[in-house]
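User: Can you predict the 3D structure for this chain?
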Amino acid sequence: MKTKIIAVCLLAITFLAIASRPSSAEDANNAPASMPIDTEKAGRGGDVAYRAVIRLICPAQNSASTGFLHKSGNIITAANVVQDCPFPAMVTPDGNISPVTIVATDPDHDLALVKPSVAMNVPPLPIASGSTIKVGTQVSTWGFPSGYFGLAPILSVGYLAGTDKNQVAAGKIVLQWIVNAPFNGGNSGGPLIQVETGEVVGVVSTKLAPLTSDTVAMLRGLENSTVGPAYTGTTSDGKPATFTEGQLVGKVVNELRRQVQLVVGKAVIRDDLINFLKANKIEP
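Assistant: Here is the predicted structure, written as structure tokens:
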């Protein structure tokens, strides 16, 4: 058994390929810069965020992420948080689970709105308007990264490092912030806060830990494998399940990938968040 575990870990390390796509030199040269501010201000906005940021879960997928309260009474999060989730829910600060209803999603910009079944009687996080946001601006996020099981969100701090242009459906180009901060699986959907003002300037989308296309294909092959030794176990809801050895290896590799920390992530920009809210007849 120990030999198999070692083999799985070695295979996992082999499969973890890290790639990045830098912004163009022209973008970098034209990007305005901002001087760092006093680190004592890193937690600004935390008194509101500590209560307005909530854990969102998808029991069917055994996944958890982050969302935050908007003044409309809805919760803003990332579209990838609720994608293919039949019964999304939120975990209240007292540990109870309460259902939420999906109001709107925008997969291209990775944004979603959900409505809690029980109103959150706390101050919402304000969205920035009008101020210039520059590369080098110190930002923070509050959320529920993977491996953290507390009921209150925790703080991560970093800087806006640049931008990246992503091609989405129908060839559309979407701009996102590159953030030099310790994002992790579970931080998706959390608020990106400008620490100087305590206002939201974006929404955490993903951590940057991409794989090569070859590695993705290998992982899919493992996770779809139906041959080889099989093992029995239980799912997160206690139901019995059977997994092949290849499927178990695929699960371990993907879990290791989720835990890899490059201290770099991506976030939806403020203008796209504001446009998303307006498109759904919600005043930002």
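The first helix runs from residue 2 to 15. Residues 2-16+211-259 form one domain.
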